[in-house]
Amino acid sequence: MTKNPTNPKEWHVVTTRSRAEKKVHARLEEQNIESFLPLQKRLRQWKDRKKWVEMPIISGYCFVNISSKEYEKVLRTEHVGGFVRFEGKPARIPKYQIEFLKKMLNQSDFVVEVSQENFETGKRVEIIDGPLIGVQGELLSHRGKNRFILRINQMNTVYAVEISADKITALP
User: What CATH number does the domain containing 34 carry?
Assistant: First the structure.
């Protein structure tokens, strides 16, 4: 998709009806509207069976890359509740944040060990190996020997990342 300088496309977030994220994503794609629904495989258990299913990471939301001409088309899409707004206008999401989220989803088997002796809560760290190489964050807490909670500023969101000590480095 080439950018039209008079009407550029930007990423926005729409709210969806409860449990309708996949339907909204499918309807938007059917209308040739670029959308992104971050999904994660989770093992769900019912009374009689267990099954791996893809679940939205962020319940009730779907990302769309649209021009201003497509706003109404998105709003008319079945199961869309509306745009997430900031200061009265549809909130814009920088492209790098969408790319970061996609990068996070690709690291499903990324396991790292971090030692308490080397890393203190509140310190800034950078991932130096694996799919998240170059990502920086703040060490918020640790849960056990290998599980650390990092705040990644790109999304102003807290992610739990399991990572080994040899794959991260403390920043000054």
Answer: 3.30.70.940
Q: Is the pLDDT of residue 155 over 60?
A: no
Determine, yes or no, domain membership for 58. Answer: yes
Is pLDDT of 14 > 80?
A: yes
What is the distance between the alpha carbons of residues 32 and 26, in angstroms, rounded to a whole number? 10
What single DSSP character describes residue 8? -
Structurally, the chain folds into a number of domains equal to: 2
Output the six-digit token pair for 15: 């709210």
**Cβ neighbours around 105 below 10 Å, total:** 14
Burial class (CB in 10 A: 0-12, 13-18, 19+), 12: buried
Token pair belonging to 63: 């990302």
Three-state SS for 132? coil
Q: What are the pLDDT digits (tens) for 125-152?
A: 877 766 677 777 787 776 665 566 677 6
If DSSP codes are grouped into helix, strand and coil, which group holds residue 74? helix
